[in-house]
Amino acid sequence: MEPAKPPIPATPEPSRDTGAGRDALELEDAALVIRSLKGDAEAFGTLIRRHEARVFALAAAGLGGPARRADVDDCAQEVFLAAYQGLGTLKAPEAFGSWLVGIAQRQVFQALKKRGRNRSATLPEGLEAPKEAGAGEEEAVLEALSFLQDPERKAVALRHLAGESPRDIARMMEVPEGTVRSWISRGLAQLRERMARGGGA
Amino acid sequence: MTCAEARSLRLKWLDRQAGPEARLRLAQHAASCAHCGPALSAQLAEDEIQLEGAGLLVSAAEAARPPEDFSRRVLARLPRASTGHLVPPVPAHSPRTLEALGLESLRRRRWLRIWSSAAAAALLVCTGTWMAGAAMRARVTLAEVVEAGGAPEASRLPWERFLPLAKGENLPSGAEVRTGPADRLRLRFKDGSLVDLAPSSRLVLEGPRAGRLEDGRVHISAAKASDSWVLETPEGTVRTLGTVFSVSLEPDIPATETPGTPTKGVNP
Description:
The structure holds 2 protein chains of 2 kinds. By secondary structure, chain A is an all-alpha fold. Helices cover about 65% and strands about 0% of the residues of chain A. In chain A, helix 2 packs across helix 6 (about 150-160), helix 5 (about 135-145) crosses helix 8 and helix 7 (about 165-175) crosses helix 8 (about 175-195). The longest helix of chain A has 27 residues, at about 95-120. Chain B is of the alpha+beta class. Helices cover about 40% and strands about 25% of the residues of chain B. In chain B, strands 3-2-5-8-9-11-12-15 form an 8-stranded mixed beta sheet, with no helix packed on it. In chain B, helix 1 runs antiparallel to helix 2 (about 20-30) and helix 2 (about 20-30) runs antiparallel to helix 3 (about 35-65). The longest helix of chain B has about 45 residues, at about 95-135. The radius of gyration of chain B is 37 Å and the shape is elongated.
């Protein structure tokens, strides 16, 4: 018979606004990582739901407008599959969130490389891939966002696509909160300028 | 609204934790505050640009939202054992070790936070003490002991204890001298003024031509100069340009002054 499992928190209950609240969230992450290491699908599913928003945000911002939603979805799936396979190498389980952001960045880079290969293989030089039918303003914004440099792009994506607080981003990126705020401010000003010029490159 | 409250309210407004009335209050503060008004106005203008940029991302955020079934689809791609459980990833540590590592890491981080705060506080105190000490050590010499009868004493720094005084010693600003019932002390200030402390008296050296009589009696032969010689007492202040005078805090002995020399504002 399987031993009784401790309850899994469905959503982040403790407040993120306090150091203690964030510590509690990280402790919950640590418990979920340890259970996932034993093959507990429910625990890893909870980890996915807790962190999927930031992974989608980073993938959408990194891959840009021409990426189909499916590309972003694929990239995010690859991130979590890689995370599961590499979970045993994570030395500080409470830092799962920061670790996942690193994996997401690597996967976005891989996806961009793959896209570059496919594009050069299928399109004559100088031609862009046709836009997906129904491409809207959001696609143009994501396209403009993808041209920002890191760390501005990452900070803007986590703040305004994933809805993370500047304090949480600062903790994740291990920089002062004021630095994150200035990255966001600079990134948004660049985004606005790029959109005013017509977006894109 | 104070400037600190304005700073805090601006961040709340920027984080959408405060409504449009916050923007109005900030604009009012920017218009009326001489201290932070211009800087706050510039920041508010930048914030407008930032919020405009953030507004562009509202629909993009919707597009970047993960679909409902995302976690289920990821789990479906992970290999499963015949029991239906996921095949565990290859662990670099045993789960027990990992658990210990995780908790230890959290504990370490908390202690690091506590220790770094304590170290910063200690550093601040040490720096403050060192700077205060350096400032005190750098004080100028105000007077020299020309006669010391009995065992008069001086405290050279406010927190230092009283030590015996000897003829020829220099006294810095802020030093306090005192005489016992059988002691006498004569100091010569840099301007040539001579100050005689009667027995059972206490005087603090406050400047090149200034002192504070805390107790007892003092007789001063003030050298002539354009600045006043100022002697403070608990009962009032004596100012003179150049004269010979005595001031006593003892009830039966009145303040005296040698007539014919310029003096102003004698009190008492």
